[in-house]
C-alpha cells in the first residue's frame, strides 16, 4: 500500500503526460492486485464477508477514479 501512495505522489509531481499515465496505470495494477489479495483472504476465511465487500467497493471506486484520470490525461 505504501507503493500505491508513492505512485500517487509520483503522478502528482510529474509534468510529462506520458510519465503521468504510466504512474496511473501502475496504480491500477496495484489496486487490482490488492483486490485479488482481499478476495483470496475472503476465500480462505481470513476476513469476513462484510469486510470483503466494503473493502472491495472502496478499491473499485479508487480504480474508477484512476481510469477516469487516464482518460482525461489522454484527451488533453
Question: What's the arrangement of secondary structure elements?
Answer:
Layout: H1 2-13, H2 17-43, H3 49-75
Task: Characterise the protein shown here.
The protein is mostly helical and 76 residues long. 87% of the residues lie in helices and 0% in strands. It is built from three helices and no strands. The longest helix is centred in the middle third of the chain and has 27 residues, at 17-43. It starts with a helix and ends with a helix.
Task: Sum up the structure in keywords.
single chain; 76 residues; mainly alpha; 3 helices
Question: Quick summary of this structure?
Answer:
By secondary structure, this protein is an all-alpha fold. Helix content is 87%, strand content 0%.
Order of helices and strands: HHH
The tally of strands reads: 0
Number of helices: 3
pLDDT averaged over residues: 94
How many strands, which pairing sense, and closed or not: the largest β-sheet? none
Which runs of at least 5 residues are low in confidence (pLDDT < 50)?
Answer: none
Strand portion: under 5%
Structural class: mainly alpha
Fraction of residues in helix: over 70%
How far apart the termini lie comes to 29 Å
| Whole-angstrom Rg | 14 Å
- Name the shape in a single word: elongated
